[in-house]
Amino acid sequence: xxxxxxxxxxxxxxxxxxxxxxxxxxxxxxxxxxxxxxxxxxxxxxxxxxxxxxxxxxxxxxxxxxxxxxxxxxxxxxxxxxxxxxxxxxxxxxxxxxxxxxxxxxxxxxxxxxxxxxxxxxxxxxxxxxxxxxxxxxxxxxxxxxxxxxxxxxxxxxxxxxxxxxxxxxxxxxxxxxxxxxxxxxxxxxxxxxxxxxxxxxxxxxxxxxxxxxxxxxxxxxxxxxxxxxxxxxxxxxxxxxxxxxxxxxxxxxxxxxxxxxxxxxxxxxxxxxxxxxxxxxxxxxxxxxxxxxxxxxxxxxxxxxxxxxxxxxxxxxxxxxxxxxxxxxxxxxxxxxxxxxxxxxxxxxxxxxxxxxxxxxxxxxxxxxxxxxxxxxxxxxxxxxxxxxxxxxxxxxxxxxxxxxxxxxxxxxxxxxxxxxxxxxxxxxxxxxxxxxxxxxxxxxxxxxxxxxxxxxxxxxxxxxxxxxxxxxx
Length: 475
Ligand code: ADP
Ligand code: ZN
Ligand code: MG
Fold this sequence. Notes:
- The protein has 475 residues and is α+β, with helices and mostly antiparallel strands.
- The chain has helices spanning 54-66, 154-170, 210-229, 281-287, 292-302, 307-314, 317-329, 334-354, 359-363, 367-378, 384-397, 401-407, 416-429, 431-438, 442-455, 462-474; strands spanning 3-14, 70-71, 74-75, 78-81, 91-94, 101-102, 105-106, 109-118, 122-125, 131-134, 141-147, 183-193, 202-207, 237-242, 247-253, 263-264, 271-272.
- The protein folds into 3 domains: 3-281, no CATH class; 290-407, no CATH class; 416-474, Arc Repressor Mutant, subunit A (Orthogonal Bundle).
- The chain contains 16 helices and 17 strands.
- Strands 1, 2, 6, 7, 8, 11, 12, 13, 14 and 15 form a 10-stranded mixed sheet that branches. It has a 3-stranded antiparallel sheet with strand order 5-4-16, with no helix packed on it. A two-stranded antiparallel sheet has the order 3-17.
- Helix 15 (442-455) crosses helix 16.
- The structure holds adenosine-5'-diphosphate, zinc ion and magnesium ion.
- Adenosine-5'-diphosphate is lined by residues 6-10, 146-149, 188-190, 198-199, 201.
């Protein structure tokens, strides 16, 4: 029997704004003091009036445009009614019939909708009896993106979530950090026989890393297949992911769809997006940065950078900006640009891993200086060995790389007089090795060149040194 798994994702992401969705409280996910960024509006006091945050709507319109969705002309906010201590109004302001964005796609996966709502307070369960509530998060603008049930593979599902994170970061719309709960993924999973209609779905929650998204979906697919093989039915339910046990567990069985009694919030105005000059299509497009898939096409297609290195740049907005600045300084010379990519992705990131300096500190330095170092390598002003030492010093102290290389004695010595003296000394000091070479042992010459490189701390031009050694030995 061939079973086809199907996955649809629902992803929430907190939007990066100065203030919260409907009040003036700061939207600061790093505020450590509980219940500090709060006011009567976001604590749900009766009689308060919400005001729509324009910046949050702007993020939504930009995200919707980036994914090729349709920006709703008419949109409104609804009350989603339910009782839970983290939402003391008794309802969450969300969108129902008229979401801000409809359609679009990411990585070829069709989106159903993206709507805007408010986040709830966070509940901290102290023990079996007591829970604490922190309202700093209450009222933070939250987008919810829903995909169509068109994903058929756990790896592709987690790749979709990753690509959404990259897009949100590129747009500056969200930190989208899953570990911090800035982005939360719920996976709907079903399995059906080939050709049959979609099977009964199970919704898996509390996935807080991309790895758990992939593993939970894979686990759930196998569980469904095992049940179907035994001729059993899948029960529609909401389950959680047990990170320690690496398995899903039932949270609640859905008897019937929950009735939220959605209705338009009478305290908020309807929005006619097309009538807001700032949100017309051309205006919005003009504000979009290069999108991740466009950056990949440019780096790989135009600049000939490997897909792997391109991805390192696409995944880090600040590193990419630094790289683009360096490219401008290198005046489009493709050999130098590829050299710059290699130095950035292998040497610079290597030094960061070693703990020599933080990436943030390094890219806060001058791209012109980094470009000058690349020029020195390309022009053979330093050897590749010398360049690495120069880079190590530069990431810590910054400044003119040429001056650093000069101070450290790392400038490539091409000067025949200096190299000639060195060759003479080496020959004099290693007579036995010289005899071996004369007797036909090629490797001995390499040893002598190596002595020169050691003496010059890598700054001697090895090709010229070799020629001079051969000449001296022949004398
Ligand atoms: P509900 O009414 O239960 O909220 P929706 O139709 O609104 O269900 O879909 C919610 C999410 O579940 C969407 O991401 C959708 O793609 C996904 N989904 C719907 N049906 C299935 C299914 N049979 N298998 C897998 N995912 C599904
Ligand atoms: Zn507030
Ligand atoms: Mg639904």
